[in-house]
Design brief:
The chain is mostly helical and about 200 residues long. Helices cover about 50% and strands about 5% of the residues. Helix 1 crosses helix 3 and helix 2 packs across helix 3. It is globular, with a radius of gyration of 19 Å.
Amino acid sequence: GIFVMLSVGWMPGYLVYNATGPVKYRGKNANHFSPTAAFFKEDEYWLIVQTDIAFFAAVSLLGYCVYNFGFLAVATYYLLPYMVTNLFLVLITYLQHTDVFMPHFRSKEWTWLRGALCTVDRSFGFLLDRTLHHISDTHVCHHLFSKMPFYHAQEATEHIKRVLGPYHLKDDTPILHALWRSYSACQFIEDEGDVVFYKNIK
C-alpha cells in the first residue's frame, strides 16, 4: 500500500489513472496526457498535445540513452533520482493535505480561505526542509500566497502564525509516524455533512 503509493502513486497512478484524484472524475477520462480529459478546457487542447510531444520526446531520449549507455547507467543517473523525486513529491503532497485533524468543507461551509487553510506545516528536519526549499514546513503560506517566492516563505509563515493563531495547522509528529497514521486512519470521508473529517473504515 504505502510502497505502491510512494513509488508509482504520482506517475502513472495519479497522472494516468486518477488513482488518488477527485472522485468526481471517476468513470470519466481523467488521464493528464489526454487533451480531452474531463478537467481540461477546450482551449487547452493543443497545449496538452504540445506537452505530450515533449514528454514522449524525453522518453525517446531515455530510450536512446539506454541503447547507447546501457540500462544501468540510465537507472543510476536518471531513474533512481526520478524515483526519489517522485517519492518526495507524493509524500509531501499526501502529508500536507491528509490527516485526521484536517477538516473538509462542503457546500455553504466552503470558502476559498477555509479551503486554503486545509493544509498543515510539517517539518522534515533541518536538512530536508532546506533542500526542499521549505515547501513542507511553510505549506500554509504556499496555499495562501502561491506566487510568493520560496525565499520569503519562512518570514511570511511567522506572520501568518501570528494572524491565524489556532487556525494555523502545524504538526510535529515524526514523518514516518504521521505517514502511517494518515495512511491507516484517513480512508474515507462521509457523504453527508458540510464539515467532515477523514475516518477509518474499521
